[in-house]
Amino acid sequence: MKHALLTRCLFVSCLMLGATACSSGGPVSTNQSARTVRLGYFPNVTHAVALVGAARGTFAAALSPTATLTIRTFNAGPSLIEALFAGEIDIGYIGPNPAVNGYVKSKGQALRIIAGAASGGASFIVRPQANIQTPADLNGKKLATPQLGNTQDVALRYYLLKHGLNTVERGGTVQIIPTQNADILTLFRQGGIDGAWTPEPWASRLVLEANGQVFLDERDLWPGGQFVTTHVIASSKFLNEHPDLVKAFLRAHVESVRFINENPDQARTIINSEIERLTTRGLTEAVLKRSLQMLDITWDPISSSLFASAEHAFALGFLGDVKPDLAGIYDLRLLNNVLAENGLPPVAEQGGE
User: Can you tell me the distance from the alpha carbon of 50 to that of 58, in angstroms, rounded to the nearest whole number?
Assistant: First the structure.
């Protein structure tokens, strides 16, 4: 009997030691949702880092075994922001204007920008038959952007404003038609529009498939040719509750940026394969190559360009009557920790108020 009692005590002790050993690696979250990191992005060239990181398994490996990765793709920034508001995604790749709109709409509570992903990759393409050589030639023209109030839409409207032109709804002569990118290509071919300010790969498709001419490479408007096209946002709640998972993700993000820049041919193949898998149609080699040449893949969020773009959006009436305070929109601490681990220089938030 004594032997049986001793055996039972030893068994209980082993269970207790085992439980202690399992938790010795760090605190175990009581929030079961932390076991899954929900990532959102677009099947697009400007989201190349997300496509490559997911396809190569870099994100999943960085999170394992603490968490698993689930992926959801989107076609537009507002729908991704809505999913973040609804608690359906934790981290997302998105353009600057939807991120600013989400931050302002939630009164600075819903999200933080935690890294950059791409710079450049937007152009103003015109039809040769429209005879647009100077900004003055845009008078009376019909133009397109992907979506009312999106990043390219704001860029075009502000460009017109800077050159003394106004849209029809503001008493001017220039008509801007918010149109999905695929329909922009069709209208351009048919002569239904005179030009379009659009992101890659659509700008390259207008040039290579519809005989369009580059009226303006948007990089020419920004210091050093650098402006944010895509960055990484995180739910504030998820960031606060699970910084370890966010940091693990950022390690994979930085690794994916480096892979793309160091292996451009291999990365190009992966990107196109993912686009084809997610949309059922890949890009031609010529379009893909030109698109990526128009982009810089970077973890720097180029914060100064976001603040400038927000100023433009406010001037156009997209951000309400009171100038929004964006001072807290960035949280780059974890990114800079990851960069330091890799012996890389930190990135800075510049231009905020």
Answer: 10
Helices assigned H by DSSP within the chain: 2-23, 48-55, 58-63, 77-85, 96-105, 151-162, 181-190, 202-210, 236-241, 243-262, 264-279, 285-293, 303-315, 333-341
Q: Identify whether the C-beta of residue 69 lies closer than 8 Å to the C-beta of residue 39.
A: yes
Q: Is 182 exposed, middle or buried (0-12, 13-18, 19+ CB in 10 A)?
A: exposed
Whether residue 175 has pLDDT greater than 80: yes
Domain(s) of CATH 3.40.190.10: residues in the chain = 33-119+226-341, 122-224
Residue 4: predicted pLDDT: 40
User: What does each C-alpha distance from 319 to 154, 260, 272 come to in angstroms?
Assistant: 11, 35, 35
Cβ-proximal residues to 320 (8 Å cutoff; 6+ apart), any chain: 104, 314
122-224 belongs to which homologous superfamily? Periplasmic binding protein-like II (3.40.190.10)
Fold of the CATH domain 33-119+226-341: D-Maltodextrin-Binding Protein; domain 2 (3.40.190)
Judged by DSSP in three states, 127 sits in coil
Q: Is 183 helix (H, G, I), strand (E, B) or coil?
A: helix
With beta carbons less than 8 A apart as the criterion, state whether 118 and 295 touch: yes
Which of 268, 285, 131 has the alpha carbon at shortest distance from 208?
Answer: 285
pLDDT, position 350: 67
Percent of the chain's residues with pLDDT above 70: 89
In the numeric block, which tokens belong to residue 92?
A: 């997302």
Whether this prediction's pTM lies above 0.90 is answered by: no
Residue 24 DSSP label:
T
Pairing of strands 111-120, 175-178: unpaired
| Residue whose token pair is 């009692």 | 5
Burial annotation 246-268 (CB, 10 A radius, 16+ → b, else e): bbbbbbbbbbbbebbeeeeeebb
Residues in a beta bridge with 91:
39, 234
Mean pLDDT, residues 183-205 taken together = 96
Residue holding tokens 């398994």?
A: 57
DSSP state letters, 141-152: -EEEESSTTSHH
